[in-house]
Amino acid sequence: MLREFRDFIARGNVLDLAVAVIIGAAFATITTALTEDMIMPVVGALFGGLDFSSYFVLLGPVPAGYAGSPNDYAALKAAGAPVLGWGQFLTVLINFLILAFIIFLLVKMANKVVTKQIGEDPADIQLLREIRDELRKKG
Q1: Tens of pLDDT along 23-75?
Q2: Neighbouring-strand partners of residue 58
Q3: CA 83 from centre of chain
Q4: Pick from 76, 84, 91: which is nearest to 39 by CA?
Q5: CA 90 to CA 52: how far, in whole Å?
């Protein structure tokens, strides 16, 4: 069983997946820092506050014995108050969109590099394209 596990781990696709997960986690950290430290302060300033993630709607009463600020989202949430944290959700959504856009750009760039390395289409692919084009003309 130990040998089967070693063989499973040694497969290329498992190692590729592990590398992808690690790089993805690092990218998520970078994107989170970019969003929280550079983009969201600008967006927050446009909407009148510096911490956009603290925008929320209180949905019910503040728990008895709560002594913190009624405008502190994190403290209210920790105290168990029912809050709708739409600002935090919007921050996470923007973070995701930035990450998705960065990945899109990386894949697009990688595809260009691979295409340049391959150069022209191999002869068999070129021949298949010519056959396809001739069949389209006839039919």
Answers
A1: 888 888 887 788 778 887 787 788 776 567 778 999 999 888 898 888 888 89
A2: 83
A3: 25
A4: 91
A5: 9
Amino acid at 104: F
Q: Is 70 exposed, middle or buried (0-12, 13-18, 19+ CB in 10 A)?
A: exposed
Q: Per the structure block, which two tokens stand in for 81?
A: 């108050």
CA gap 83, 50 in Å, rounded:
20
State the amino acid at position 33 in one-letter form: A
- Given a contact cutoff of 8 angstroms between Cβ atoms, the answer to whether 76 and 66 are in contact is yes
Letter string b/e over residues 101-117, b meaning 16 or more CB atoms within 10 A of that residue's CB: eeeeeeeeeeeeeeeee
Q: Which domains does the chain have, with CATH numbers?
A: 2-138 (1.10.1200.120)
**pTM higher than 0.90 for the full model?**
no
End-to-end CA distance of the chain: give it in Å, rounded: 58
